[in-house]
From TrEMBL:
Species, as recorded: Brassica campestris
InterPro entries: RUS_fam, UVB_sens_C, UVB_sens_RUS_dom
Family to which this protein belongs: Belongs to the RUS1 family.
Residues in Protein root UVB sensitive/RUS domain copies: 72-304
Database matches in Pfam families: UVB_sens_C (PF24160), UVB_sens_prot (PF04884)
Coiled coil regions in record: none
Classification via PANTHER family: PROTEIN ROOT UVB SENSITIVE 2, CHLOROPLASTIC, RUS1 FAMILY PROTEIN C16ORF58
Protein name from the UniProt record: Protein root UVB sensitive 2, chloroplastic
Protein origin, superkingdom: Eukaryota
Residue ranges occupied by any Root UVB sensitive protein C-terminal domain in the UniProt entry: 326-435
Amino acid sequence: ELRRLHCPFSKMQFLEKVKMIKKEEPPVTVKNPESLPLYWYETSDSVSRRFHFESDGHLSMKLVDDARPVPQKMVESFLNKFFPSGYPYSVNEGYLRYTQFRALQHFSSAALSVLSTQSLLFAAGLRPTPAQATVVSWILKDGMQHMGKLICSNLGARMDSEPKQWRILADVLYDFGTGLELVSPLCPHLFLELAGLGNFAKGMAVVAARATRLPIYSSFAKEGNLSDIFAKGEAISTLFNVAGIGAGIQLASTVCSSMEGKLVVGSLLSAVHVYCVVEQMRVVPINTLNPQRTALIVANFLKTGKVPRPPDLRLQENLLFPEKPIQDAGNVRVGRALHKAVKPSQVQKLKEVFAEEKFLLSQGKSCTDMVLEHDATGEDALRGWLVAAYAKSMTKIYNDPDDVILQDAYDKMNDVFGPFLSQVQAKGWYTDRFLDGTGTRFAW
């Protein structure tokens, strides 16, 4: 091979090829029309926008023409800043009413906070201006408040089960603490006790309100837009908190300059505050299964043969006493320990009847106790509730022993459970978990 390279003929060929390569011009690239920048116009509601892709691939938008009236521009700008993107189609039913009462709630709460802080400072022997009260409030809310937060943090499982009840309780606790601060000038010798107890209650309220915020916001997230809903909800809260502080300063300088005025206006603001929270919770369509919602689903199914949607069921919920058994669903009570709910002599019989289930049922005179295994899901709770409801209705007709009635009710449940579960899931209920709070469960 080396000899071939040194021969004259091979050298000539090699040099000619090199010259030909050097003489070749680089190919001229002609731009493809399809590779040119792409742009288009979109027109809707008297607004024309030009869209095009930048060289880096990002989509850019430019407003070309906007013929909307000024009020409409302001309304749409407000919606874009304080409502989730795609509203109202991106959220579930009831979001607007929830937001309206949430805004009024934060407005009244902020105004009430200014008045209570001013009262605290008077009780401590100071004579602040209303503006000073808003600044010092951030310092006075500490102290005993931390103790309340620590105690309330142990109740997180109950808040998962009943977020609506605990959200209402949080605002009642907050108003209770604020009320103690408001009346502190009437007994200045008890300033430390009233201020400490008030901040203790407000600390518990803060934890309960924050812990229940996520399940409430999640119930409105129709398109997985939880972060957007959360951010816009906090924007609404901030806006009306600021407005409430301004109103509180004005009230403190005028109507509430006297103690009598503070008591009257404070009571009214507290009533408005709690009413707004109750109305908010009425419209929240939570789709997780807890004892009350499971009982209501079963009761509606036995009456009509249909399963209600979460938005349809929300108005039937008992917000103040959710643990109260529902008669039409078998008066089922969940959460008692196995040794308390079931007699030792009945355990073996019940285990044979419900051999393939993750629950046991024990019928009593007024209630039916249901005890769940440690890994029981929402489906297991629905099965147990249906058996209890059927058994309760059979005892009114037949005089058979309890074990016979339970067996007949169990067989009837198995006949209808397939279509029933399909309805439950089709209506949007989440059946993978059952939130029974701090209820006791068992394992064999």
